[in-house]
Amino acid sequence: MKQAATGALVGLAVGDAMGFPTEFNDMAQIEAKCGPWRTMPLPLSSGRAYVTDDTQMTLALGEGLVEAMAGGRALTAGSMEPPVRARFVEWYTSPDNNRAPGMTCLRACEALSLGGRWQEASDIGSKGCGANMRVAPLGLVPGLDRRQLSGAAQLQSALTHGHPTALAASDLTAYAVRLLADGVGTAALLPALRDHARESRDAYRADWLGDLADRAHDQDRAAFTARGWDECLAVIDRLAAALRTADPEADPCLATGAGWIAEEAFATGLFCFLLLHDDPPAVVRRAAYSSGDSDSVAALAGAFAGAHHGAAAWPGEWVRDIEYRDRLLALGAAWDA
Predict the structure, then answer these.
(1) What are the domain boundaries of the chain?
(2) What is the DSSP-derived secondary structure letter of residue 118?
(3) How many Cα atoms sit within 13 Å of 259 on the Cβ side?
(4) Fold topology of 4-121+128-336
(5) What is the pLDDT of residues 197-252, one digit of tens each?
(6) How high is the pLDDT of residue 14?
């Protein structure tokens, strides 16, 4: 059995742990610290590979989704928002929330903890990568149709990052994970993602987002939505062009961006996966060995590789040593069953 959910979740955490010590470093500093990228080890401290807020918030989302769908309940905005909100607030107040989390997530989760409408907590101007680095679980939940997947991916982003490009990039990231888990080949992936972006360009998901767009300064809701999808379509084109002349020895951030913003984190994580898709450990090593937001780029690259190859993608000692191993495996097993 492929076990795509387990593979994706473990891969995300492994990539996150790989990139944790290299984030904020330039290439010379990474080389001095880690040696050649192809032999980069999983970093251990007291026998544990520690992760960042990327994995912590992925677990918060995933476990919130399990609660939202308990007892066979359908996933809707009404069933999803309360438990996911509660998990995000739990993360915000946890003493383990000490891994240099992003300011947008911190501010929004603080606002969510105070109650009131979630739209008022959302940062409508932020398209940082903090929303799409955690969205992979939605691509792994069994039984969601494309509209549910799209709406839920955008809602989980909007709880913190309300910029239309953050919404669209989260949607694309979750859909890429779903396609890979379902066995779509690497050659067909970019065309399918481009089609999804074009089809979504004019569709504001009011059933999931409510009046979020009305807080922005676009002409109308359609213009708000199109603004985000147009930026994502542009980065898909940039990714396709980069793959035609790709050099696996070069810093991947030079090809598709440093990954601090949503659409670039999606593109650079996917670039690393597509560049080295037959070698999952190389995927996360190359992504982590990068000059930008290394942990988030590598987390996404690991999720893509794990969804494509399944649980067997990862060396047993990496699975053994990863922080939050039991929670990751339990969540994966629930969706792989």
Answers:
(1) 4-121+128-336
(2) H
(3) 33
(4) ADP-ribosylglycohydrolase fold (1.10.4080)
(5) 999 999 999 999 999 999 999 999 999 999 999 999 999 999 999 999 999 999 99
(6) 98
